[in-house]
Structure formats: structure tokens, C-alpha cells
Amino acid sequence: MNNNIIILTGDRPTGPLHLGHYAGSLRQRVALQHTHRQFVLIADLQGLTDNGSNPQKIRDNIPEVMADYLAVGIDPTLSTICLQSALTALAELTMLYMNIVTVSRVERNPTVKNEIAQKGFARSLPVGFLVYPVSQAADITAFKAGYVPVGDDQLPMIEQTNEIVHKMNSLLPAPVLNHCKAMLSDVSRLPGIDGSAKMSKSLGNTLLLSADEEAIHRAVSAMYTDPNHLKISDPGHIEGNVVFTWLDAFHPDRKKISAMKAHYQQGGLGDRACKNELEGCLQELIAPIRERRAEFIKDKGELMRLLKEGSECASMVTQETLREVKSGLGIPVF
Ligand code: TRP
Fold first, then answer.
1. Is the Cβ atom of 142 under 6 angstroms away from ligand 1?
2. pTM of the prediction?
3. What is the pLDDT of residues 210-229, one digit of tens each?
4. Residue nearest to ligand 1 atom 8, measured at CA
């Protein structure tokens, strides 16, 4: 156990989690919980930043995400799973940090910029959405996290967090906040089944961790391959071919995949055969997750109880950081 470096990751509870989450971060967390002190945050307040008029959606998805966590093997006795809104210190730190971040800086965050364009907010952009990276900096720093396992779209958040750490520490008599590093997985961005760069619910190109056999079959059948690979005997491309990207991400037999790639590039290996290989591997990967998930989701009360327990523990950690920052700034701590 490496107790010195703390890990924090989180997810917005906007829907059940999918294989993109699994490849990008969830399976890393399952490994890290054995070697590090790890906190996993269900970021419901961040989820509300673009769902302000639909709080029910966020509320309903909290136990769904919790069930996903437990089903993939995040163990609440090894990791502390907690709820953002239950940790009031995070909101208070956000208030303090907002004063040391400029409007031009938040507008420059490329991930936020993209999201704003994609969602077509224009002048109806919620203030909370624009500043969610500041709130995410509060999440990360409140736990004094050193590593943050995330997908590559989150790199700008880590950069912005470190700027806040630097600025805030310089205002305090002694540094309180930790700098952090992103921890990218080998597959930091799993493409969607249609070949889009990212899986997202709104694009309808995801495969859920709760997918049944039929849904897995349909997803693989519809999967984007090499559009110019018309006959089996034609040489095919593996770059941008989602079937091979996913085989790389999930298939346990690397040698077999290398041989398949060579065969495909040379010509003589059909898409159907490759898809069959992928489907077999996904059915095997997802079946036990789906079964465990179905059990956990039966008792939402128990899921919320576990989340409350984790939140109580996390609250103590984050309150302590808030207290240190406040007292360093000379704000009375009663
Ligand atoms: N922004 C992250 C996402 O959309 C979720 C998140 C919220 C997060 N707080 C965090 C991730 C803290 C890492 C650390 O996936």
C-alpha cells in the first residue's frame, strides 16, 4: 500500500456508465484501490451544471452509477466512494477559488469550450457550467490528490487545477494544496461504435456496462470498420477501424490480435470473423458485470447507505483541507 499518494476520480451521474468509462478509468481504479488510498466521487453537483432544470435525472442516476462501480469491482472497503453534494467543503472551496480564476481563463478551457459549442448554449450558458472546472479543482485539491485517473478530455481540468494550487498556495503562509497529475490509461479514449472519437450517450454510440447479450450483438454488428474493405480478399485498414481498436482495448490474447491484424492488412480476413472475435470477448467481459449489477441495483437503499458511509468519511478529509485554506487566508474558522 502506497499511502503517500492519494487518488481521486469521479463521474457525473447523468446516466449508467459505459465501456468507454471502463476502458478509460474504471478498470484502473479497481487496480489502484489495492495500492493507494483512493476516493471515488459521484459528481452530482457537476452533473447539475448542464441539467439544472432536470435534477430528477441526476438524482435517479446516483444509485445507477454506484451499482456500476460495485459491479466492476470498486470495493467500498478498499475505496471511499462519496457524493459531491454531501461534501459541503467542496462548495466552499469552489467559492474561494472562483476569486482567483479569471473569466478569460475559464473561457479558454478547451474541453469546456467544445462542450459549450456542442450543446449550443450560446447566451443561455449556465454560469455553473462555465466554472465547473473550478469546482473540479476543489474536488481534487480537497482530497489532496496526487493522481487523477481520467480520460484525455480531462487534461485541461488538471492543468487548471494546478494553476489554482499554485496561486492559492502563494497566498497562504505555507503551502496547503497538492499539485496533481493526470493518470491516463492505455486506452484514454475509446471510440464510439460508429467510429466517432468519443463515446457519448447523446450520440447513441455507446455500449453500457449493463448491456444484455442482444445489445452487445447489435453494437458489434453495427460497428464501424474499414469502409473500403469490400471483399474478404481485399487488404484492410486497422487504423480508425473500431473493431480493432476495441480488440486492442479488451482482448486478453495480444498475440492472437497481432496475427489477426497482419492477416486483415494483408487481405483474406473478413469483417465478420473479426467482429465474432470481438463479440465473444465482450460477451465474456460484460456478462459477470451485468449479473453483479443486476443484483446490486435491486437494493437502492443499501447502495445509498454505502454512499452515505463513504461520504461521512470523505467529509472529514475535505473539511480539514477547507479549514487549512481558510485559516491560511485569515478567514475566521469557528
Ligand atoms: N469531469 C469529470 C467527467 O466528466 C467528472 C469529475 C468530477 C471528476 N469531479 C472530478 C473527475 C474529480 C476526476 C476528479 O468525467
1. no
2. 0.94
3. 999 999 999 999 999 999 99
4. 10
